[in-house]
Design a protein that fits this description.
By secondary structure, the protein is α/β, with parallel strands linked by helices. Helices cover about 45% and strands about 20% of the residues.
């Protein structure tokens, strides 16, 4: 059978509300009935209590959107702190389930290098590469209508006070800044992690792949196939 990857939580949060209205039970049932589907639950929360008490199938991958504690405290108000997210992920991994991590958006600020380095260090201390399916990287990127809405709403956010440039019809960081941040992130991981974990750039131009990872894909289809194959191998070997 063909393998499918379904991601949830991109524009919401897959775990924040727990099993409210039976949503997690429905997703678990779906994954059990479709073993050829890799179902990803993406979150910034630490609300895993329901998952700890059920034997959910291994083709469900729980992933956490991570950032530095500085960004979490100032820009991700109401979300779980970094240590809480990592502890939740550790508990899921202890159940023998694969986890993953998204650094999207990475945000450029005065101490970004030191702060992100500490997050990358913690990941490598808390987890083994065999437990982690993926690490994605991406920078702050806006479509213009969203940028306008943020400015109209006001608030305490400072993320619009940094230089943004036109990038593929959107607003984002200059290419040199992106390359610096992605390269620093990837090179912060050991060779063992770089070999065993599927790293990729999320919603970024393909020109960054070769200088960051030393390789790229000929097409989106080739990328998707490699991604799904990597995830399946982790699921089978956990």
């Amino acid at each position: 059978d063909k393998t499918y990857h379904i991601g949830t939580g991109q524009s919401s949060d897959s775990l924040m509300w727990g099993n409210s209205h039976g949503v997690l039970d429905a997703l678990i049932d779906f994954a059990e009935r479709h073993p050829n589907v890799i179902l990803e639950l993406k979150t910034k929360s630490a609300n895993i209590s329901h998952l700890l008490h059920v034997d959910f199938p291994r083709n469900i991958i729980c992933t956490w959107s991570l950032n530095t504690q500085t960004i979490i405290e100032n820009e991700e108000l109401g979300s779980a702190g970094l240590s809480a997210r990592l502890h939740a992920a550790r508990q899921i991994a202890d159940k023998g389930r694969i986890v993953g991590f998204h650094f999207h958006p990475m945000i450029h600020y005065d101490n970004w290098r030191e702060d992100y380095s500490e997050v990358f260090r913690q990941l490598q201390v808390i987890f083994r590469p065999g437990e982690v399916a993926l690490i994605s990287l991406g920078t702050l990127t806006y479509i213009k209508p969203v940028l306008k809405q943020i400015r109209q709403r006001g608030g305490a956010s400072k993320i619009l006070k940094m230089p943004l440039v036109e990038a593929e019809g959107k607003l984002s960081y200059p290419a040199a800044t992106k390359l610096e941040m992605f390269s620093h992130a990837y090179n912060s991981f050991s060779e063992e992690w770089r070999q065993q974990v599927f790293f990729y750039l999320c919603m970024e131009h393909h020109r960054f792949w070769q200088p960051v990872f030393g390789s790229d894909y000929a097409s989106n289809e080739a990328f998707e196939q490699a991604m799904k194959q990597s995830y399946l191998e982790k699921i089978r070997n956990v």
